[in-house]
Amino acid sequence: MQSTPPNSGSVNGELLDEKNQPEQAQTAAQKRQKSRHRASVACASCRDRRIRCVVPPGDSECTQCKRSGVECIIKNDDERRRPISRAYMCSLTERVALLETMLKEHGAEPPPANHPPKTRHGLPQDSEPSPQRGADKPSSNGPDNSSPGSQQDDFIDVDQLDQLDNQDSSSHRGDEVDAPSPTVLAPGPPRKDGMVNRLLSTRGHLSFDQLSGRLRYFGPTTNCHVHSELGNSHGSNSESSEQSRRAEKIVRSLSLDTYDYLMEVFWQHYNSVIHVLHKEAFNEDRETGRAQFYSGFLHVCVLAMGYRFADKTRPDIQRLSLPQKESTLHREAKYMLDHELERPGGIPSVVALLLLGDLEFAVGRDNLGWLYAGLAVRLAFDIGLHLDTRLSGLSVREVEIRQMTLWACVIYDKYWALFLGRPTSMKSTDLEIYSLSKQFERLGTCRPAGVEKSLETQIYEALLDLMELAGKITENMDPRSQGPDAVIDRNQYLRMAALDREFSNWYARLPDTLRWTPANINAAPFSFFLLHQQYHSALILLHRPFAMYEDSQQADDEASGPDSHFSALSRTVCTKHAIRVARIFWQHRQRFDTKQIFVTGMQHAGTAATALVAALAFIKDPVDRANNMQYLECLSAALQDMACTFQPAERMSVVLQAVMLELR
């Protein structure tokens, strides 16, 4: 049997004589050229996904369709092969000349012309998109148009995947739209180290995941499956396209006035309190079609949150309303969630899940909202937001937006932990940027709400420091470690007292612009009131387990001791800070509409009301009871206002009114 030389694959295993060598070499070169040849007319599937269509010699279908398992259909409708009307081109040329003449008459010099090739067939395949191609995108000048990024999402991701498949030959395309620069991968093992070294590396790193088309974080315990860059990543393109079309349809269904109103309400009443979105980056990506800080799913969630704070008496807002204080925008966002979870989109998906969690809480489904917030936290770790990316080659603004998104996840995590009395999911030891926040401002030079709202950003940074302390309350909840009949654990009480001093130090460090003074009360934004309400509510939550309200009657019958003394002190603290929360609500209602208060206002009112009800149950002095009842009525009025926006506030208001009737 004749053996085949190892290098004879290109000559079909036959030995050539000298005479046939030049001819055979030319044939082999032609075959190599054909194998790299791109089809002159792309098939329908590749054209829809905007990827290269390569048909191997002798095959009737392209490699992408064969890999995806779909039918390869080539349509004979190539625009490049159609003749260009000479008369039409002449008319356009005359029109351009006329316009240039008019510009010169007005003293303006037209810019020099940059003409494309004379025929469409002469266009290079890998050149940048021509102005004609850019003009095909939908206009984004008006909100009644669809999300401008929706038509580009699939092109961006799939083209980037194709770039990774051919990284050695097309590295010059690394700075295309939404394509992360090669330096982003610097924290991970370099490619030149080989697959073995990458597999054995004990460093956590960011790496490009071909399946999702995004940068993802992989820790040192990662197995070999995440290092493989093989696999079919094109199966979800149809879903992404459907997601974009659905978002486009939703945005177009809104009138220009309704759209502007919902967006303005979101920026004013939600994003100014907790900076979940960078306004400038969101709008820029929306206009340019980038998907780094914008997605159709996020856009719909933003509009749904804007409805939450909108004036429900407006006819256009009423048309969006559904029973149980829901909206059609909220329903559409939940419908789009299924597709989003199959292929999360980085930072936009993290922010959208945070917003969707608050939307669910606002209609009374706090269990589902907590799950959505947990998904956002897990996705934040998945895309490496917890890493220090200052030396990764990213731009300063991108690094700061990543940190801003992480801080939003941190503060939401702590809010949910306090509201439901559960442990936090994000620990400071897991976040590399915690050490940076001690040296710099948490948001750096980033002004997510705009330069004109720098005071709101300053308030938000103070809130981040406050919630860092408030998150520790969930770790010090039960003062009785031995059982329900045991005395107060002294060590727990000492830890509580130490945390109380940390809260006092935070309050003492507030700058003059954030202190509770008459001048600030009359001029500060409404987030200023929420900051101080959060401070007093946190102290109530810190002392309430040690107040032993359920044992107060028994303590009155027994001899006074250290435990009863500790409980009395904690009850006094709770009552004092509950009164201050009620006073802040009263001041807030003098300047702002409580119907548009941020979602955390419900917890502030509920926490203070519970402390006042507990105090009224055991206060005997008629004067003190009358004073506390006035503060309780103030909180009840605030909850009634919030009931127009949040369904849980309606239930809390009904319960509080029944309790007040019983106390009277």
Descriptive report:
The chain has helices spanning 21-35, 44-49, 63-68, 86-105, 131-135, 153-165, 194-200, 237-252, 256-269, 279-288, 296-308, 315-318, 328-342, 347-362, 366-382, 396-420, 434-437, 454-470, 490-508, 518-523, 526-547, 552-557, 562-591, 601-616, 622-642, 647-663, and strands at residues 205-209, 214-218, 321-322, 326-327. Among the domains are: 194-223 and 238-440, no CATH class; 486-550 and 561-663, no CATH class. Helix content is 54%, strand content 2%. The model is unreliable at 1-22, 31-38, 119-192, 227-236, 436-440 and 555-559 (pLDDT under 50). The protein is mainly α.
Q: Strand order within the widest sheet? A: 1-2
Number of helices: 26
Distance between the terminal alpha carbons, to the nearest Å?
Answer: 107 Å
Give the C-alpha Rg.
32 Å
Kindly state the number of beta strands: 4
User: What is the H/E string?
Assistant: HHHHHHHEEHHHHHEEHHHHHHHHHHHHHH
Protein name: Zn(2)-C6 fungal-type domain-containing protein
InterPro entries: Transcr_Regulatory_Elem (IPR051615), XnlR_reg_dom (IPR007219), Zn2-C6_fun-type_DNA-bd_sf (IPR036864), Zn2Cys6_DnaBD (IPR001138)
Pfam families: Fungal_trans, Zn_clus
Subcellular location: Nucleus
Features:
664 residues; mainly alpha; two-stranded antiparallel ribbon; 26 helices; elongated
Structure in a nutshell:
Residues 42-74 form the Zn(2)-C6 fungal-type domain. The chain has 664 residues and is mainly α.
